[in-house]
Amino acid sequence: MHTLGLRPTSQQYLVHSAEQLCGLTLAEVAQTLQVNVPKNLRRNKGWIGQLLELALGASAGSKPEQDFPELGVELKTIPVNDQGKPLETTFVSVAPLTGISGLRWQDSNVRNKLSCVLWIPIIGERHVPPGERVIGPPLLWHPSSEEERLLQQDWEEIMELISLGHIQSITARHGQVLQLRPKAANSKALTEAIGAKGQPILTLPRGFYLKTNFTGTLLAKHFML
DNA sequence: CAATGATCATAC
DNA sequence: GTATGATCATTG
């Protein structure tokens, strides 16, 4: 606990810090950092992620880069039940809807963000007050070749539909492990995209999300070792 | 009751 | 509006 908030200088140090947090309630961490604990997350959906960023010394702000650029690590909290099963999908990044011709998987935001992720399971069902939820064992993850193959396959299929002007027909049912869903302040938010005839249209901003079966499997592999 | 579509707070 | 952090709430 004495290292709370310090910037990690290596992946090893970062993981060590995360391991020190394992078993603590969010209320305990919040108190140490002098952060107020909300009664629920309805108006504080990003509270847990921001608390862990602060606790582990991640760079704050809204910069479009990894949480630990010098370490090449992305930090993600993931709500799970007491058996380690994810309770929600995991947001990865906003999907580019224009200027995407020639964009390859290798250069995509999704691939870059998921190349190395420090997963922090947060144990507690939706009805459990945030402060009572418990930090689980961290996992520094790199996608296996099979996992990356699945991600690339879904990404390429979805991006092709977008580039062909079919974004209006894409639902969250597309993709095995990665899905495209709205990512906006509300249904009135609009952004430019490609229409069916190649013309510019306005549509809801979308984001890529990891489906729970995918994150559930990757966490399970870790916990079974 | 899980999954999809919609939404909340904040910084710039 | 975009990008950060995600979960809510309605639907099937």
Automatic annotation (TrEMBL):
Q: Where in the cell is it found?
A: Cytoplasm
UniProt keywords (A-Z) are:
Cytoplasm, DNA damage, DNA repair, Endonuclease, Hydrolase, Nuclease
Q: Which molecular-function annotations from GO does this UniProt entry contain?
A: DNA binding; endonuclease activity; hydrolase activity
The record places domain DNA mismatch repair MutH/Type II restriction enzyme Sau3AI at 56-154
- What is one GO cellular-component annotation here? cytoplasm
Protein name (record): DNA mismatch repair protein MutH
Q: Which family does it belong to?
A: Belongs to the MutH family.
Task: Explain the purpose of this protein.
Answer: Sequence-specific endonuclease that cleaves unmethylated GATC sequences. It is involved in DNA mismatch repair.
Which Pfam families does the protein's record reference?
MutH
Record CDD domains:
MutH-like
Among the record's GO biological process terms, what is one? mismatch repair
Q: Which InterPro entries match?
A: DNA_mismatch_repair_MutH, DNA_rep_MutH/RE_typeII_Sau3AI, DNA_rep_MutH/T2_RE_sf, Restrct_endonuc-II-like
